[in-house]
Specification:
This protein is α+β, with helices and mostly antiparallel strands. The chain has 14 helices and 20 strands. Strands 12-15-14-13-16-17 form a 6-stranded antiparallel β-barrel. Strands 2-5-4 form a 3-stranded antiparallel β-sheet. A 3-stranded antiparallel β-sheet has the order 7-8-9, covered by helices on one side. The protein binds flavin-adenine dinucleotide.
Length: 397
């Protein structure tokens, strides 16, 4: 939509969308509020990109996060910045962003065709020639911009069609994987914790003795595994390792306390309640759903009097709180993934224009490319920046 509305100068622009309305995925973004960019320094934009940040150089410098803010504010959408630099419409409605883009498209005479699916793109003599629509009709074009998104949330229309167009054009497509995605876990005590949200915990993911990921944050248990901001970030950082084999993870439930401080705290509880049963002493330390699970995993007899808990038992308990074990078996898949990692290889795309280096007049923008970023508005910023670059290049043709 952004590319279409900015490409119109002196040429006929047709926006083809297979859904019955524009921006179905955009509507869902930011839990319906659309976290459209991040107010961070431009350097941090690059740091938020996990794969191929260098490819984003021209894109981010030509149409920066500030440019995105200015564009939408000038289009009549007042914006606000929240925790972590996340930018949203003041109204908290993603529909405002879609409406602003649609209005710009109409103002710039973009012909919007809904419920039209592109089946393939035709190339001749190293140039684009036509798009073939579902049903057999063809449209001639000297410029074709592929903005088909990735494979995540396929119900929104992003079903990976652009990868096939790229392969037909002779492009390489890097293996696609769900990213920013909930993780599946093995232990049968995890579903019992479904709905429990933990703030300020530390998640470490290991491969043998090597720590692959270790960060603080917020996470949640689900019926099939774990999710929440910390887990989504972990999924993006772990990438392909998630499809290789099981990974052992540990949650430090009390990361603000050192091992010694935690031991002191537990000792104090046990001493202050020495005649109470162990199971009646520890609830003060944990959310109620977690207590029975912790109790089971501790191996300490629940009815044991607090004063009888031995030193090794207490040490083991401290260790359990600092290393609550979770085995990650994989991801929740594309249906639940915020983005797709992988896509059209950026080596074959001109980073200054988004034009294919193989086929003249063919452009790729947004998530279809092999670039993925963290949560916080960075994926949409990449989509806006690449859309702008393509539009700028097309306008100069
Ligand atoms: C639940 C959820 C929340 C998110 N929240 C945020 C957020 O707050 N901030 C952020 O930065 N990112 C967020 N993202 C990621 C962000 O939405 C995407 O990175 C971004 O939408 C990618 O834009 P795109 O234009 O490349 O592709 P898409 O938004 O996927 O759009 C592709 C469009 O192409 C259409 N299409 C596909 N194939 C064809 C075809 N053959 N013919 C015709 N039309 C076709 C599709 O129907 C679709 O409308 C979120 C993603 C999800 C799933």
């Amino acid at each position: 939509m952004l590319c279409a509305c900015l490409s119109g100068k002196g040429r006929k622009v047709i926006l083809i969308e297979k859904n019955e309305k524009l921006g179905k995925k955009l509507f869902l973004t930011g839990k319906g509020r659309c976290n459209l960019t991040n107010s961070c320094d431009i350097q941090e934009l690059f740091q938020a990109v996990i794969h191929n940040p260098r490819f984003c150089y021209s894109a981010f410098y030509t149409f920066s996060n500030q440019d995105a803010v200015d564009f939408f504010e000038n289009a009549g959408v007042p914006l606000k910045t929240e925790r972590g630099g996340r930018v949203f419409p003041v109204s908290d409605h993603s529909s405002e962003i879609i409406r602003a883009l649609e209005k710009k498209c109409r103002a710039n005479h973009v012909e919007i065709r809904l419920q039209e699916k592109v089946d393939s793109i035709r190339y001749a003599d190293g140039k684009v020639s036509k798009v073939k629509l579902h049903g057999g009709r063809e449209l001639e074009a000297d410029v074709i911009v592929v903005a088909t998104g990735g494979l995540s949330y396929p119900q929104t229309g992003s079903t990976g069609d652009g990868y096939a167009f790229a392969v037909d054009a002779g492009h390489t497509v890097a293996r696609c994987m769900p990213s920013l995605v909930p993780l599946r876990t093995k232990e049968d005590y995890i579903p019992r914790l479904a709905g429990l949200s933990l703030r300020n915990v530390e998640l470490s993911v290991m491969q043998g003795k090597k720590t692959l990921f270790c960060e603080f944050g917020e996470m949640m248990f689900t019926h099939t595994g774990i999710t929440g901001p910390l887990v989504l970030t972990a999924s993006a950082v772990l990438g392909e390792r998630l499809s290789e084999k099981e990974l052992l993870a540990y949650i430090n439930l009390k990361p603000a306390l050192s091992e010694e401080q935690l031991d002191d705290r537990i000792l104090r509880e046990l001493e202050a309640n020495s005649n109470k049963q162990f199971k009646n002493v520890i609830p003060v330390l944990f959310p109620s759903t977690l207590t029975p699970v912790i109790l089971e995993l501790s191996g300490i007899m629940p009815d044991k009097a607090a004063r009888e808990v031995s030193h090794p038992e207490r040490k083991g308990f401290v260790d359990l709180i600092r290393h609550f074990p979770v085995t990650i078996t994989g991801t929740a898949g594309f249906r639940e993934a915020i983005i797709t990692k992988g896509g059209v290889s950026v080596k074959e795309i001109d980073p200054g224009t988004m034009e294919s280096k193989k086929i003249k007049g063919l452009y790729f923008i947004g998530e279809v490319l092999d670039v993925d970023a963290l949560t916080g508005g960075f994926n949409l910023q990449f989509a806006w920046s690449t859309a702008y670059l393509a539009a700028q290049a097309i306008s100069k043709l």
